[in-house]
Specification:
By secondary structure, this protein is an alpha/beta fold. Helices cover about 30% and strands about 30% of the residues. The N terminus is likely disordered.
Length: about 450
């Protein structure tokens, strides 16, 4: 992945520059060249990181080797820059340092632009994943299983570290690292360098509730042609086959045995999957746990959960989305809704505990109307029901314009579209309604009342 070298901007107007030294020490002469000014060294009084999203400021500064109280000048900052660039985790690295307001030293800022990150996966390396993770964390302050810079230098460096660690455990097989699907999303995968056999065919055994054709239709698009390892194939079963069974109330489905043999007529392996479908489970109690901005009974009603019927988790997920929409209609635009399962094997029921992360409530801001004359604007303002400062309904602008068209409020009405501008700091939403006439440039006319 391409990454850029650091550019030091000396002009103060650029934002990343350098001024004369703090007043408490003898400042460089006004006639000194920029290079001479840069050679002065003073302690760091404050230190910040800008632009970081995936890594904490502490991680970035640990790699840079900068700390409060350290006496620094041009050489130290350039060395810090070089260390950050060498990680391969940043597309650009910059810094600025200037006298702090109290004249006690430098106020320093490091600015970075990060390389895209992906999660990390280990595949059949013969050592517990946790052991490899610990070894990498000891070598790389930026390492995380959730986020690793997907650049070739970073991947190659971690591949070498893993290879060296495996050697200490007696494993000498060569490994490779690269970006690959896992199972249906990209990840940085470290695995043996040998070529893996491809999945050519899948057969299910022991299935009764779902047909062979239905199961094959679900697994084939993600598995056939993909490199086979049992670990990765089980991930594919969990992501593509398990939801089919859970839609039929089979929440305890398992795949106790997987075996392979060479495919008969093509190059690859024929995978045989034994299925234990389990019993039918019904949806039991549904409750809201923790704080919620709306009444729990109203949220459960909005979800239309079918208690007493088969625990169909396709419907459950649809219900969670309906609850989220109910919250958005009440102004909670960032709402998230999840459900914890409580499976009762004796009763063959599944209870749901809904967890609501509502976030801030957004209010109606300014309403702007474009394309109408004064009479038309007055009519829209009269019929628009969300007043400024009231909770904003995310679905209302589209609903309102659909109603305007349905009721035939204006003649010559062409395209209509709402635009919303969300202010995440003020938690307010401004709405612009654009009206276009049937003829370009012609404002739609309000139909006279009879």
């Amino acid at each position: 992945m391409k990454w850029l070298v650091f550019i030091l901007m000396l002009a103060p107007a650029c934002g990343f520059g350098q001024t004369k030294a703090p007043a408490r020490k003898t400042a460089p002469a006004k006639s000194a060249t920029p290079a001479a000014a840069l050679s002065a060294k003073y302690p760091i009084d404050s230190l910040e990181v800008e632009g970081n999203r995936n890594y904490t400021s502490e991680q970035v500064l640990a790699v840079a080797g900068l700390r409060i109280g350290q006496v620094v000048g041009k050489e130290e900052f350039e060395a810090a820059h070089d260390r950050l660039v060498a990680t391969g985790a940043f597309e650009t690295v910059g810094y600025r340092f200037a006298p702090d307001p109290n004249g006690n030293g430098y106020a320093a800022t490091v600015r970075v632009t990060e390389v895209e990150t992906l999660p990390v996966r280990f595949q059949e390396l013969g050592v517990p994943d946790g052991d490899i993770e610990a070894a990498l964390r000891a070598r790389d302050p930026l390492f995380s299983m959730d986020k690793l810079a997907a650049s070739r230098p970073v991947i190659d460096r971690h591949t070498a570290w893993i290879q060296a660690y495996l050697a200490t455990r007696g494993a000498t097989e060569k490994i490779a690292g690269g970006v690959a699907p896992w199972p249906d999303k990209l990840a940085v995968v470290f695995r043996p360098a040998k070529n893996l056999p491809a999945v050519a065919q899948v057969t299910f055994e022991g299935n009764q509730a779902l047909s062979q054709d239905a199961l094959r239709a679900a697994i084939a698009p993600v598995a056939v042609g993909a490199a086979y390892t049992e670990e990765k194939f089980r991930d594919l079963l969990d992501s593509s086959i398990r939801p089919l069974y859970e839609a039929h109330g089979r929440v305890r489905v398992t795949f106790p045995k997987i075996r392979t043999e060479p495919a008969a007529d093509v190059v690859g392996v024929h995978v045989f999957v034994t299925v234990d479908e389990g019993n039918d489970y019904k949806l039991g109690k549904v409750a809201v746990t923790g704080p919620a901005p709306l009444r729990p009974q109203d949220l459960i009603k909005a979800g239309e959960f079918k208690t007493g019927e088969a625990a169909n988790f396709d419907r459950v997920n649809d219900g969670l989305e309906k609850v989220r929409k109910a919250l958005r209609r009440a102004g909670y635009l960032d709402a998230k809704v999840t459900a914890d399962r409580d499976v009762h094997d004796a009763e063959k029921t599944v209870d749901l505990a809904l967890r609501v992360d509502a976030g801030a409530q957004y209010l109606m801001g300014k309403l702007t109307i474009v394309g109408l004359d004064l009479n038309g604007e007055a009519e829209i303002n009269r019929t628009w029901t969300i007043k400024e400062g009231k909770p904003f309904d995310a679905e209302y602008p589209d609903y309102f314009l659909a109603r305007v068209r349905q009721e035939g409020m204006f003649d010559n009405l062409g395209e209509t579209a709402p635009e919303t501008k969300v202010d995440p700091q003020k938690h307010a939403v401004d709405v612009t309604l654009r009206f276009a006439g049937a003829v370009k440039g012609q404002a739609p006319e309000r139909r006279p009342q009879r």
